[in-house]
Model the fold of this input.
Amino acid sequence: MRVKDETKQQALFEATVKVVNEIGFASSSVAKIAKEAGISPATIYIYHENKEDLLVSTYIEIKKGMGRALLQGFDTSMPIRDIFMMVWRNGFEHVSKHRADFHFTEQFANSPFIDLVDMEEVNKYFETIYQVIQRGIDEKIIKDVSFEILGVFMFYPMLILSNKRHCSGFALTDENIETAFNMAWDAIKL
Amino acid sequence: MRVKDETKQQALFEATVKVVNEIGFASSSVAKIAKEAGISPATIYIYHENKEDLLVSTYIEIKKGMGRALLQGFDTSMPIRDIFMMVWRNGFEHVSKHRADFHFTEQFANSPFIDLVDMEEVNKYFETIYQVIQRGIDEKIIKDVSFEILGVFMFYPMLILSNKRHCSGFALTDENIETAFNMAWDAIKL
Amino acid sequence: MRVKDETKQQALFEATVKVVNEIGFASSSVAKIAKEAGISPATIYIYHENKEDLLVSTYIEIKKGMGRALLQGFDTSMPIRDIFMMVWRNGFEHVSKHRADFHFTEQFANSPFIDLVDMEEVNKYFETIYQVIQRGIDEKIIKDVSFEILGVFMFYPMLILSNKRHCSGFALTDENIETAFNMAWDAIKL
Amino acid sequence: MRVKDETKQQALFEATVKVVNEIGFASSSVAKIAKEAGISPATIYIYHENKEDLLVSTYIEIKKGMGRALLQGFDTSMPIRDIFMMVWRNGFEHVSKHRADFHFTEQFANSPFIDLVDMEEVNKYFETIYQVIQRGIDEKIIKDVSFEILGVFMFYPMLILSNKRHCSGFALTDENIETAFNMAWDAIKL
DNA sequence: GATGAATGAGTGTTCATTCAT
DNA sequence: CATGAATGAACACTCATTCAT
Done:
């Protein structure tokens, strides 16, 4: 795998997301993705070892972007609740701007492909957030339960609410986002 | 004229779930499912119009079972919170007994296959629960927000917490289940 | 093969002709023919040993009808030319009334299926006509060339001219039929 | 990038003709044709969109060769009858050299596949001959009837007489060919 | 006599991947 | 670096036929 043309690599990621979103993993083929990206199927093998690698790389690329987006404007000195609200808003903003990407990750994370991902690598993009949660627990602001349970009420709701497939009726207005945040906060706050 | 073998149909559903869970939609083929079910690939087409129909039927079959399970022991006269707790417990119990089925639906619901399902048909299995929610809203016990938002905090958590992929560290103990219920209830109660 | 229901047998012949004409031998299947005939594929095997036998039987059935039709109103005492003209007219009349049947035989006779037919059996339906030809040769009215060559100019033209595929512009009017007859007669007469 | 192998394309045409002639459209499969051509079934799809396209292309290829062959030695200044005789002889010579090809076209032209052919494209290979016919009509040498009728007596006989299936007893000797020509000429001449 | 269930073998076509250019 | 040609293996699905009922 020799890397050269960065725009081609980018086009490949975008094509992968588009094709998989439109027809699912079951029907997605290297040929179709290549066609969408405007390159030859053979060229994909210059950028990626095989099909699996293409899919996994696409997933990690998107996750990296999400981790970065959530922490936009982050400031340790802010009150815990404000930090969460900011993260919450950042999350909705980022997702609404990258619906397709996020849609892809949902599909990916609920398939056996997820087993191929080195979760350590992904988690490090969210490290800072874990630290905030821990602080909240230590300061007795947040319930003292496992990160996983907290995530179920604080982070998954962002994904589900933003997912047209699951919540077709939830418009991403400031008001709706705040209402939902209050519910999430009620769930996790002590 | 031989008569249609009902056990074959059942074996087919189980094989579909098993194969899809193990290797995902991307690699699941009619031949593999048939082999797992111990029948000829051609026989599948006696029971189902095509592959799509097999997958969709499997999904609906599972959803039907879930809807039935959630309402086990249901009694209108119970207090709203108790009903939800019962549904919550029923949910975890059912899911823990049918992990594979439920795993399949997660994958299915996050793929384009879900678009092939007549949601009306699925929703009717959950009709009674919708009525309880409405009663809770009317009696000012539950927050007056859309069903979708409530579902995100009251029902999706069951799915995510039970999902080893997403919550490997969440053991389905009575204590954990109750802790999580309290968080869900905090989120939706007025 | 036990024969019972004559109308079913007839429906089967008609279905065979219809299906083969519409989609050709390449796509025709026992199942499609059975469906067209309104019976089960399995039932076909009560009336015919196998698919081949069904096709061949259909061909022979049609040929029998043609042989009979050509000789309608036949009378040995008529002048040779008049006999030919009568046969010619009978031919066009019969074909125009049984376009589909005739269409089927064209396709059949130009496929390897024809090799399965016992030509002796078919030829006997046309025996009388061969005798007339021989008389014409003996009486020095018709050119003394082989039956095959004479057939090419006297009988094949009926088939080709009646075939919409080959002669879309040839309307089966009395005038056209007579014009063509004169050409055929010019070809074979001494 | 490997370059398309023209001999492979040719082998494919020949294999198609051979297989279809031997077992008919009903039994001819892409796999059998590929095997006969010595290539992988998948390779066929590099040269042709699908099976249909392979068959149609083969037909057109053969027709093109025929059109060219008929006009060998063609000279406008020759008398009409001599031109026809030359075309007639060219036809028999070409057919006898390419029996298999011509056999294929007979089968093809009597099947629904013929409907897939752009007749305009085929007819242009015979354009010159149509002009000669028209000249013959204008000069009152040939009967003033439609091209189709003339073709039935002037061109179809070549095909039928050369067809072992229809005329097993017609040897392609110069004498036989001339005898038949005279009959054809008698049919169409004024 | 008639049929739907059942299937091994086959259908046309696409797959992920390699390779010569 | 990039590609179209090439393919063995697999794909979803249909085949002709048999068989229990």
Observations:
- The longest helix of chain C spans residues 6-27.
- Residues 29-31, 41-42, 45, 50-51 of chain C lie near DNA strand F (CB under 10 Å from a C1').
